[in-house]
């Protein structure tokens, strides 16, 4: 997390610019997180989301009109269909996994891309062990669990937010598909 004060200093932007971009819907209002601090309340941001977005706005603001920028940043990623060829261009996605995952598909939905992203990011998961699993029934309200047993073997589990995990397993990470989709929205726009 980064404070508003530190963000403004790091990005060399003004308070007015930040809030103008929020009003113009270039920065999602959900990214402005109010938190209690010793002196009252302060606004914080997820640094991994806000910094790349502001860099992109600064890079594009003189090249494009406001409406073009707004459309660029506000695509409805949940409804977007992805062509496998555009995924090959994303360095965060493993080309072997893309190739294998999309064998019979001409286009992918967001959940498909999330699965490819998870296997690309978490190399500790052996994709080949999961490749026959039917991921088509997964929904965007799912959660990804990275689990470890007492022999240090890593497992993936996808379920809801209230999963009861076997006490023999340690939850190394729990991430909502919604948060992953926000990360992917930023990656796929670059």
Task: Please characterize this protein's 3D structure.
By secondary structure, this protein is α+β, with helices and mostly antiparallel strands. The protein has two domains: 2-73, Multidrug-efflux Transporter Regulator, Chain: A, Domain 2, CATH 1.10.1660; 82-189, no CATH class. The chain is built from nine helices and eight strands. The strands form three sheets. A three-stranded antiparallel sheet has the order 1-3-2. A hairpin with a 5-residue loop joins β6 (143-148) and β7. It is globular.
Key traits:
190 residues, alpha+beta, Multidrug-efflux Transporter Regulator, Chain: A, Domain 2, 3-stranded antiparallel beta sheet, 9 helices, globular
Summarize the structure.
With 190 residues, the chain is of the alpha+beta class. It is built from 9 helices and 8 strands.
- General form: globular
Mean pLDDT: 84
Q: Strands of the largest sheet, in order across it?
A: 1-3-2
> Termini, distance in Å?
22 Å
Question: What is the tally of helical segments?
Answer: 9
Question: Topology, pairings included?
Answer:
Blueprint: E1 2-3, H1 4-11, H2 15-23, E2 33-37, E3 40-45, H3 47-60, H4 66-73, E4 82-83, H5 84-88, H6 95-101, E5 107-108, H7 110-121, H8 127-130, E6 143-148, E7 154-159, E8 170-176, H9 177-189
Antiparallel strand pairs: 1-3, 2-3, 4-5, 6-7, 6-8
Helix pairs in contact: 7-9
